Amino acid sequence: MADAPTYTAEQVDAAVTAMSEPGRLDHAQDVVTHAAPALQKILNDALFEGGYFSGAHEAAVGQALATPDDEQRLAAIRVLIAEEVRLGLLIGTAVGFQLAHELQHVAGTPDTPAPPT
Questions:
Q1: Distance, first Cα to last Cα, the chain
Q2: Cα 8 off chain centre by
Q3: 95 near 42, Cβ under 8 Å?
Q4: What are the tens digits of pLDDT across the range 97-110?
Q5: Number of neighbours of residue 9 by Cβ within 10 angstroms
């Protein structure tokens, strides 16, 4: 497989803008729904391999739960959840980006960036 294409900031911005159009994500959502079990495994593997669920993470969860003040405990738990969501989003984006390239390869189409719309 050829090297993956590179994109300019302007191309990425145009693609993100295009994705916000109504109905633009319908097919992608269908594909993701179909692939959800395999994608979940990839996400879990990436989180574990990256050490996210290591002893440090478990200690942070334990520390948040052991916080005696209700408001501070709630804040600590919210921070942990937000960190996990952000990390999942970043990994998910990387997986989606690579999935697009793999689909292009499997379909026999050239790995070229889509023109901005």
A1: 27
A2: 20
A3: yes
A4: 888 878 877 877 65
A5: 7
The number of CA neighbours under 13 Å toward the Cβ of 101 is 12
What separation in angstroms does the CA of 112 have from each of 4, 18, 93?
8, 17, 18
Q: What is the largest CA-CA distance in the chain?
A: 58
Give per-residue pLDDT as tens, 39-92: 889 888 888 888 877 888 888 899 999 999 999 999 999 999 998 888 888 888
CB 108 within 8 A of CB 68: no
Question: What CA dihedral angle connects 26, 31, 33 and 35, to 10 degrees?
Answer: -170
State the Cα–Cα distance between residues 40 and 72, nearest whole angstrom.
31
Phi, psi of 111 (to 5 degrees): -80, 80
Q: How many residues belong to the chain? A: 117
Query: Residue holding tokens 């026999």?
Result: 108
- The phi, psi pair for 68, rounded to 5°, reads -70, -35
Please state at what angle helix 55-66 crosses helix 70-107, rounded to 10 degrees. 150
